[in-house]
Amino acid sequence: MERTHNTEPVVVVDKLWSIFGEGDKAFAVHQDLDLTVYRGEMLSIVGGSGTGKTVLLRQILGLLHPGKGTVTTLGRPAAELCQEGAAARVGMLFQHGALYSAFNVLENIGFALREQGTLPDAMVDEAAMIKLQMVGLKPEHAMRMPADLSGGMVKRVALARALIMDPPLLLLDEPTAGLDPTSSDEFCALLRDLHAELGLTVIMVTHDLDTLFALSSRVAVLAEKRVLVTGTPREVAQFQHPFIETFFQGERGRRAMAPAPVGEH
Ligand SMILES: Nc1ncnc2c1ncn2[C@@H]1O[C@H](COP(=O)(O)OP(=O)(O)OP(=O)(O)O)[C@@H](O)[C@H]1O
Predict the structure, then answer these.
(1) Nearest ligand 1 atom to alpha carbon 56
(2) Measured by CB atoms within 10 angstroms of the end CB, which terminus of the chain is less buried, N or C?
(3) Is the ipTM of this complex over 0.95?
(4) What is the pLDDT of residue 255?
(5) ABC transporter domain: which residues (predicted)?
């Protein structure tokens, strides 16, 4: 399969140790974990429950600090992102990223830009309206409250909020979790289109094989506290490891890897 990324690293994780607890209770979630993500990739991170996929996203975003090793995001130590306001450089769609329930859709989308305080409210609203339409919502949705949105619409608003500052890098934690199959397919199509249109680099955590195959140019498998293997979905699926066999070679994995019937994409 042709590689869709170039060779400019956007994220470089070098011999990372992620450590929680102190003294006798300290434990490492990652040990000497290496991962490089290149500009324009859509990289999926997969691994068993508790292998540290979300922790790795948080390290890349600079919300956690390496016990040992380094995380370089967009050419700088990841920790510096947070100090200067990460939203401008990295968009993050959290797994349980609920919207602010007291704010309407437009206020949610424009939140980071308004907080920055550099633009008048009318311009923030205008920018938020552009993002609202970019994620496939209509202007009449702008004044709705989060409680009045479907699950698919909540994800779209959260995505628009993550993109408000035009970040070059987007992190997604389980982007299709909780969506029905149709909404999930629609959200994948949206992500694929935005990735291409905006020239984004995307790193996502997913358990969902359909999402993985629909979107990933490359997959990184987390196991044994490190990145065990990277490659295209089909390359990784051939790797001999108990997690990979269970994950890719079950019924759902075989279905996801089956060639699409003629006429389907
Ligand atoms: N702030 C924290 N303090 C202590 N332990 C933590 C903290 N954050 C994560 N951990 C631990 O790190 C490990 C990895 O957590 P993480 O949420 O990254 O797993 P995951 O691979 O995303 O799992 P899942 O697929 O179940 O969401 C878990 O054992 C978790 O308890």
Answers:
(1) 18
(2) C
(3) yes
(4) 61
(5) 11-249
